[in-house]
Amino acid sequence: MPAYTTQSDLEERYGTQFLIQLTDRADTPTRAIDADVVTRAISETEGLINGYLAGRYALPLTAVPDPIPAIAAQIAIYVLHVYEPNPKITRDYEMAIKDLERISKGTIQLAAEGVAAETTGGGGAQLTDRERPFTETTMKGFI
Q: Which of 14, 37, 85, 128 could form a disulfide linkage to 81, CB 3.0–4.6 angstroms apart?
């Protein structure tokens, strides 16, 4: 399964220094990105995204279609915050969740293989009414 986002994607999008600030949680700062912290955040992000995609798409995705990488980066950077993130990060996260909701409802469709087709379970008209026999007694007044 291809990754929705990677540490290098996050570094490219948000900068190495920002990731160091978010992940260097050692008592004595190492001034380096803690890859384990980033991996946990990415894993949590992918689990969240898969939860939204599972109802509509066959998982794992064989290729990661747009806009999933951007959504994954926005969620992962939010997850990496220990304390309250700045308003832009929070807005991006909220928009990413709204996009996932739209994807799960089918408002936004992904160009992905294995789209689970929606079926209604029936292929024609069904009659579910009582039987109405036409007899002389039941038609009294009409005949």
A: 85
Domain count, the chain: 1
- Look up the domain containing 60 and give its range: 7-105
Whether 130 is covered by a domain: the verdict is no
Closest CA to 112 of 2, 7, 10: 2
Task: Work out whether the CA dihedral 48, 49, 52, 53 comes out positive or negative.
Answer: negative
Q: Is 112 among the domain residues?
A: no
Q: What is the pLDDT of residues 1-57, one digit of tens each?
A: 689 999 999 999 999 999 999 999 988 889 999 999 999 999 999 999 999 998 888
Residue 115 β-bridge partners: 57
pTM of the predicted model over 0.70: yes
Ramachandran angles phi, psi of 11, nearest 5°: -65, -40
